[in-house]
Design brief:
The complex is a heterodimer of chains A (about 290) and B (about 350).
Chain A: H1 4-33, H2 35-38, H3 76-112, H4 114-128, H5 132-143, H6 147-174, H7 177-185, H8 189-225, H9 237-246, H10 253-280, H11 284-287
Helix pairs in contact in A: 1-3, 1-10, 3-4, 3-6, 3-8, 4-6, 5-6, 6-8, 7-8, 8-9, 8-10, 9-10
Chain B: H1 2-32, H2 38-41, H3 49-58, H4 65-77, H5 91-126, H6 131-144, H7 148-162, H8 185-191, H9 195-232, H10 235-242, H11 247-284, H12 290-299, H13 303-331, H14 333-337
Helix pairs in contact in B: 1-13, 5-9, 5-11, 5-13, 6-9, 7-9, 7-11, 8-9, 9-11, 10-11, 11-12, 11-13, 12-13
The chains are: A mainly alpha (about 290), B mainly alpha (about 350).
């Protein structure tokens, strides 16, 4: 049972997560950054004589369109690569924004306690009484369609994910002896928060950030699926799914490919987050599953 | 016990009502910064400016925001949710039609999520420490990366198109006339005494409910597994083991019983999320529930519907939370005796 290869395999299954996750995220990030160079076609260019061409590995495949074309004859590979740009832009900016708002409120509330903490706690309660999808749809109605609205909506919806979990962590840390010692030595509140408490909550923060990036990719896909994200002159994965749904009987690949893109991106972020949690903070292994 | 339950419900209601008020005020404010004019939208396109102005006054849109909110709130409390701009019907009747459909779908999905979650959690725990356990654990992370709507689309592709096994649009085959008693279709078909119709309605729900249930079963299994890990450390488990009680009996009779409460708490939270998840699943499966109503309303900027549906979602989530707290009280003997 505890022979060496088994142990090795166990070890890889644990630490391999970070590697595999980082690799997946790296591939998507690379595609996003270099989409204009990598894409063999203009993602908007329509070729109405070559619509719904299957991928190159099918019998009727055409090597000019490696992953085939959609119902308007647009190259699926190019659209996927450009869709990665939208997904990654939203993932990075929205989750950083949500983290900034949520983590700041969590640290202030958890550290100072009192009325401020009570107020933040009630705000989280109100937010949590809304299913996130519903709240983001309401916000999108108010903000209007567009990628910056998507980012803002995600920040405004998902700050609670950071706030809830981190606040509990700050509360625990605040009562540690070394924090009391720092105050006794005469550290200011600001310095205590940034130098003593933040380093303790950082592993959790990074883990949450990685997972939130995956969530942001999903939310962007949902919003572009219902036509509230980027305009028709840009390509996004959710939009590709919505288009492919119309021709599901003619071409399953058109539906499957953007779904796989979303799945592997989210999987990358989740593996990264899950792996980082295990590596950075073994205490979290069992206690905090969500 | 009943007194305690009533007390709990009372206390929770006292908290829930202000939350609903704040939620409704927030939604109201967000929707009022919209650059569209609901008055102009509810008029025929050839209406004159003066007519639109008259309509604005009639709808109360010329008054200050707090006053508008007060008027809306007053009507809402009396059950008048206004009229849909797009459908030209009372919003309350639209919601009465769609809410049962969504609740029915969510309940079935939760049942599936709970079943899969418990089975998976026990399996994960059973395989702990082996390479199969690690692989299953990794598998659960992989499963968690596929959100409900991807499962939904995948099922359509697999069991609707490639291997046409189950229907994937609507609630009932068009050859049936839909019976209306409670709005809950499974119940209504039974009331009518039509097992064939019941079966058809159930068939229509299998794919969307399984897609939702599968996505939400993963967190349940993971929490059940880690709670079982914690419970296993307890003295009474070691005691049972020393007495020579069989592993499966320890797991099912002793450990599971104590691991159920934290899992139930999580399921309450999950049910709230799952209820939100019905929104997109309904759109994908053209299932006539709240979610489809909401997305249609968002596309048409139909403010009265958006407002009311958002509030309906929030109200259901709050009710779910209260019911789960009640269940918790019923199931946890430690809370019951503490008087």
């Amino acid at each position: 049972m505890s022979s060496r290869p088994v142990k090795k395999a166990l070890g890889f299954l644990r630490s391999g997560r970070v590697l595999v996750g980082a690799a997946l995220v790296g591939i998507v990030l690379f595609s996003a950054l270099f989409a204009p160079i990598l894409a063999p076609h203009d993602p908007q260019e329509q070729n109405l004589v070559a619509t719904l061409v299957p991928p190159v590995w099918s019998v009727d495949g055409d090597p000019t369109y490696l992953l085939g074309t959609d119902s308007l004859g647009r190259d699926v590979l190019s659209r996927l690569l450009h869709g990665a740009r939208v997904a990654m832009t939203v993932a990075v900016l929205a989750s950083l924004g949500a983290m900034l708002v949520g983590a700041t409120l969590a640290h202030l509330g958890g550290y100072f306690g009192g009325k401020l903490d009570w107020l933040i706690g009630r705000a989280v309660d109100v937010w949590m009484s809304f299913p996130p999808v519903v709240l983001s749809l309401v916000l999108m109605t108010g903000l209007g369609a567009g990628i910056s609205s998507v980012i803002l909506a995600i920040v405004l919806v998902d700050w609670t994910r950071f706030c809830r979990v981190l606040r509990a962590e700050v509360l625990v840390t605040r009562h540690q002896d070394y924090v009391a010692a720092a105050r006794l030595v005469g550290f200011s509140h600001w310095r205590t928060l940034t130098r003593e408490i933040l380093p303790a909550t950082l592993p959790l923060l990074i883990t949450l950030l990685s997972i939130e990036m995956g969530i942001a990719v999903i939310v962007e896909a949902i919003l572009s699926f219902v036509g509230m994200s980027v305009g028709a002159n840009q390509s996004a994965w959710g939009q590709m799914i919505a288009d492919a749904r119309q021709t599901i009987y003619e071409s399953g690949w058109n539906l499957l490919l953007p779904m796989l893109a979303i799945f592997f991106t989210v999987l990358g972020f989740n593996l990264l987050g899950d792996g980082l949690r295990r590596t950075l903070d073994p205490r979290l292994l069992q206690a905090r599953e969500l | 016990m009943i007194v305690q339950l009533l007390g709990l419900f009372g206390r929770r209601l006292v908290v829930a009502i202000p939350i609903l008020l704040i939620v409704s005020a927030l939604v109201f404010v967000v929707l009022r910064v919209l650059p569209v004019d609901p008055a102009a939208m509810s008029m025929p396109p050839n209406a004159t400016q003066a007519e639109i102005e008259l309509k604005r006054q009639e709808m109360g849109l010329d008054r200050p925001l707090p006053e508008q909110y007060a008027i809306w709130l007053g009507r809402t409390v009396r059950g008048d949710l206004g009229a849909s701009i797009h459908f030209r019907r009372a919003v309350s009747s639209l919601i009465a039609e769609t809410l049962p459909a969504t609740v029915e779908l969510a309940l079935l999905a939760m049942l599936i999520a709970a079943g899969l979650g418990f089975a998976g959690g026990l399996l994960l725990f059973h395989l702990r420490g082996t390479w199969r356990g690690e692989a299953a654990d990794l598998g659960s992370t992989v499963l968690m990366s596929a959100p409900d709507f991807l499962w939904g689309l995948m099922f359509i592709l697999a069991f609707g198109v490639l291997w046409p096994l189950l229907p994937f649009t609507g609630r009932l085959a068009s050859s049936f006339a839909r019976p209306v008693h409670t709005g809950f279709l499974l119940l209504d078909t039974l009331i009518e005494g039509r097992p064939d119709m019941f079966l058809d309605a159930l068939k229509h729900m299998i794919l969307p409910a399984t897609a939702l249930g599968l996505a939400f079963s993963v967190p349940i299994m993971r929490v059940l597994r880690s709670t079982l890990f914690e419970v296993e450390q307890a003295d009474y488990i070691r005691q049972a083991r020393l007495r020579g009680v069989s592993e499966s009996r320890i797991l099912l009779r002793h450990a599971l019983k104590n691991a159920i409460l934290p899992t139930l708490t999580l399921m309450g939270v999950q049910f709230g999320f799952l209820f939100g998840g019905t929104l997109l699943i309904e759109v994908i499966y053209s299932y006539p529930g709240l979610g489809n109503l909401m997305v249609d309303a968002v596309r048409n900027a139909d403010l009265p519907i958006i407002q009311a549906v958002a509030l309906a979602y929030a109200a259901v989530v709050l009710i779910i939370n209260i019911v789960v707290d009640g269940l918790y009280l019923v199931l946890n003997p430690r809370l019951r005796s503490a008087r």
